[in-house]
């Protein structure tokens, strides 16, 4: 899956850049790519500061800032996508920097992280079954 991602995404990005370059010209295309990176960096900073403040408030109140940690991860991911050259990655990155989109993506991310944490806590044999349908876990 990762290999496919590293092969397909750059090809798609290059194809889109070429198409946009043919439609509006080389200099405007490059200017648009730089502008999107600058806007992405600004938006990442603004959203990131807001998430840090909310996380600090949650910790001060004695709560676990799980929502804020997930938002922080999505903001960093969105910012990284905005800083990489390409229109497709910029669109995905811009979407992740918008709070309504993060609100939709966040539950899936939290479920995934919770599953990973649970699997790590149970050890490498957590999901394996022994012959006869019994698990290798001994409940004490």
Could you give the topology of this structure?
Elements (H helix, E strand, L loop, with lengths): L1 H23 L1 H35 L5 H18 L3 H11 L1 H24 L18
Question: What would your notes on this structure say?
Answer:
The protein is an all-alpha fold and 140 residues long. The chain has a domain at 33-120. 79% of the residues lie in helices and 0% in strands. It has five helices and no strands. The protein has helices at residues 2-24, 26-60, 66-83, 87-97, 99-122. The longest helix has 35 residues, at 26-60. It is flat, with a radius of gyration of 21 Å. The two termini are 39 Å apart.
Features:
140 residues; mainly alpha; flat
Mean pLDDT: 85
H/E topology pattern: HHHHH
Strand content is under 5%
| Coarse morphology | flat
Tally of helical runs? 5
Report the sheet with the most strands, covering strand number, pairing sense and barrel closure.
Answer: none
Q: C-alpha Rg, in Å?
A: 21 Å
Distance between the ends: 39 Å
For the secondary structure, the number of strands is 0
Which residues sit in consecutive blocks of at least 5 with pLDDT less than 50? none
Category by helix and strand content: mainly alpha
Q: Helical amount among residues, as a percent range? A: over 70%
Describe the structure in brief.
This protein is an all-alpha fold and 140 residues long.
């Amino acid at each position: 899956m990762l290999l496919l991602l590293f092969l397909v995404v750059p090809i798609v990005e290059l194809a889109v850049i070429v198409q946009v370059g043919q439609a509006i010209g080389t200099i405007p295309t490059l200017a648009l790519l730089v502008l999107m990176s600058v806007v992405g960096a600004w938006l990442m900073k603004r959203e990131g500061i807001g998430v840090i403040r909310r996380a600090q408030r949650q910790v001060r109140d004695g709560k676990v800032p799980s929502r804020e940690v997930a938002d922080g991860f999505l903001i960093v991911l969105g910012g990284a996508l905005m800083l990489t050259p390409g229109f497709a990655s910029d669109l995905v990155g811009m979407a992740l920097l918008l709070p309504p989109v993060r609100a939709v993506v966040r539950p899936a991310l939290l479920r995934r992280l919770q599953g990973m944490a649970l699997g790590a806590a149970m050890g490498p044999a957590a999901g394996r079954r022994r012959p006869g349908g019994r698990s290798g876990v001994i409940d004490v």
